[in-house]
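2024-03-11 09:14:02 INFO queue: dequeued item Sugar-binding transcriptional regulator, len=312
2024-03-11 09:14:02 INFO validating residues
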Amino acid sequence: MYRDKDKLAINVAKLYYRSDYSQQKIAQELGVSRPSISRLLQYAKDKGYVNIQIVDPVEDMSHMEQRLKDKLHLKDVKIASSTINDEEEIKKYIGITAARYLDSIIKDGDIIGVGWGTTLYNMSQALVPKAIKGSQVVQLEGGVSHSEWNNYAREILESFAANFDTVAQYMPLPVIFDTKETKELVDKDRYIKRVLELGRHANIAIFSVGTVRPNALFFRLGYTGIEEQEKIQKSSVGDICSRFFDVEGRICNRDLDDRTVGITLSELRDKEFSIMISGGEAKINAIRAALKGRYANVLITDQFTGKALLED
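2024-03-11 09:14:37 INFO prediction written
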């Protein structure tokens, strides 16, 4: 008798959970009452013939976020759930997640410093409109380039300013000068000095991490010659705001750094929110090194990159 009941309960469970039959349809098919079907389904659960597993991606991301916060000693971590492990797709999802995060923390009077690049551009296109009183948006590094490639510096700043109904403070300069002396002279200009100071006083800094791949945006923009590019690639694993660092997160090309216009990496450590938005397999080493340097206290990345960082 019990064996027959077990077999019937299993058949009912298969029709309900696998074939997606309603309880009423199962009752009609088997010639039994609907309440009997309900009791058989409960019986199948009680006997262990049915195990229900709920996969909640939000819950899974929260668990990864907490593990990364604890391991990397960060103020906050947000994980974007990208549909595939593809660099361009990851940028889109990270951009959306970063825009939502900024919306959750921004308040009246905030000064927001932003870098440039394709990841920041994706974020700028996903911003949640909000008028912020007494706030300003400032460019953290020089962005002028005569290359055919676009670093989106102006578009990003304009999007942020329009989104938060505030004024954009531009850095109308190349990010690298040929000599340290020229760069120091430019720094003394009254307008440039004011923009640099505003960047230093920004309580929110948002930036991505670059790589030293031959096709990295920094190199495509033509800021360095072949010889200097090769030198950077030998000693560096990545950059933040065009300041290059090694695997330990240390500035590794002082001459280049002295010719770079914009916020310094050490100044990023002092921000209330120093938000690094970056992901993808090619950037893992650079992200890891940047976190060793303590240049960010908030990380926004994807689940594939997050998993790689946890496996160290």
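2024-03-11 09:14:37 INFO annotate: The beta strands are 76-80, 111-114, 136-139, 167-169, 204-207, 238-240, 243-245, 273-277, 298-302.
2024-03-11 09:14:38 INFO item closed
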